[in-house]
């Protein structure tokens, strides 16, 4: 299935194609009502959670993509939910179950996925923002999911070049078109690279969990190399009219800060592009 480039990517906007500019407060944090900003803010934890539940990165991303597409229809009509992340994860779980039911590739697959999702969810689209159950997983579990996802995207078994694109797509939520533009390749070419990488993760049985301590340092080095490559790709553009691609630099800095928060620097020596003089 070709990689899609809509709601999860950086280009996601409100139906009118413009930022609403509205902000509100949730749990002490000021949030924007612009769908594109909300999708980018919650893309990583949503994809990480669905990937763990389904045991498949491609299926997890597709489920969150479906939830984002539904949000573009529901939120303008009913209002942005108080907890957009919980809404997206809840709807994505529901969409994933519906997708598995429709496909019915084998009898055992549906039963296994249902057990992973934890409970039976009725069929049919859940279109009301208020009707979606909240996600009650503790913050530590969500952090584990997020770390598991980025470690999978940066796994040494994957080609170094594709690790950057896969991280930008699955962790940062950039659209395939934006990633292709950054690497100066046609969008279909980048889409195929990403699809092949996600399928290799599945076929090679690459773990979607955070590595155990014995191998953590080595694996963390691979993740940090990807962060620096993202920053370098933006700071020292090899080609194209722009000498600096600010959006890539911003993504690298955001990744380094997120890793520092999820893996405290005092314990794991995490630093990033914005941590150096």
Specify Rg, calculated over alpha carbons: 18 Å
> What's the overall average pLDDT, rounded?
74
**Which class best fits the helix and strand makeup?**
mainly alpha
Largest sheet strand order: 1-2
Order of helices and strands: EEHHHHHHHHHHH
Question: What is the distance, rounded to the nearest whole angstrom, between the alpha carbons of the first and last residues?
Answer: 44 Å
- Total count of strands: 2
What is the helix tally? 11
Instruction: Report the helical percentage.
Output: 55-70%
Shape: globular
The residue ranges in which pLDDT falls below 50 over 5 or more consecutive positions are 1-31, 120-136, 265-269
The profile of the biggest β sheet is: 2 strands, antiparallel
Can you describe what's shown?
The protein has two domains: 23-131; 139-275, no CATH class. The model is unreliable at 1-31, 120-136 and 265-269 (pLDDT under 50). It starts with 22 loop residues before the first strand and ends in a 9-residue tail after the last helix. Helix 7 packs across helix 8 (187-203) and helix 9 runs antiparallel to helix 10. The protein is globular. Strand 1 (23-26) and strand 2 form a beta hairpin. A two-stranded antiparallel ribbon has the order 1-2. It has eleven helices and two strands, in the order ββααααααααααα. The longest helix has 23 residues, at 213-235. The relative contact order is 0.12. The protein is mainly alpha-helical and 277 residues long.
């Amino acid at each position: 299935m070709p990689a899609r480039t809509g709601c999860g990517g950086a280009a996601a906007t409100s139906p009118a194609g413009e930022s609403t500019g509205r902000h509100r407060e949730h749990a002490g944090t000021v949030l924007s009502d612009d769908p594109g900003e909300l999708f980018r803010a919650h893309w990583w934890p949503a994809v990480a959670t669905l990937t763990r539940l389904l045991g498949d990165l491609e299926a997890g991303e597709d489920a969150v993509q479906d939830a984002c597409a539904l949000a573009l229809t529901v939120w303008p009509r009913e209002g942005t939910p108080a907890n957009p992340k919980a809404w997206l994860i809840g709807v994505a779980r529901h969409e994933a179950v519906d997708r598995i039911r429709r496909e019915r590739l084998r009898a055992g697959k549906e039963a296994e996925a249902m057990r992973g999702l934890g409970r039976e969810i009725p069929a049919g689209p859940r279109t009301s923002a208020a009707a979606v159950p909240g996600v009650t997983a503790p913050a530590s579990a969500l952090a584990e999911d997020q770390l598991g996802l980025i470690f999978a995207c940066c796994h040494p078994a994957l080609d170094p070049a594709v690790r950057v694109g896969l991280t930008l797509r699955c962790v940062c939520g950039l659209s395939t078109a934006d990633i292709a533009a950054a690497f100066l390749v046609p969008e279909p070419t980048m889409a195929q690279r990403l699809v092949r990488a996600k399928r290799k993760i599945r076929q090679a049985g690459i773990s979607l969990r955070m590595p155990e301590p014995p191998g953590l340092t080595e694996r963390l080095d691979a993740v940090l190399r990807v962060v620096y490559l993202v920053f370098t790709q933006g700071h020292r553009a090899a080609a194209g009219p722009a000498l600096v691609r600010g959006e890539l630099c911003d993504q690298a800095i955001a990744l380094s800060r997120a890793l520092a928060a999820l893996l405290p620097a005092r314990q794991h020596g995490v630093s990033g592009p914005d941590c150096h003089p």
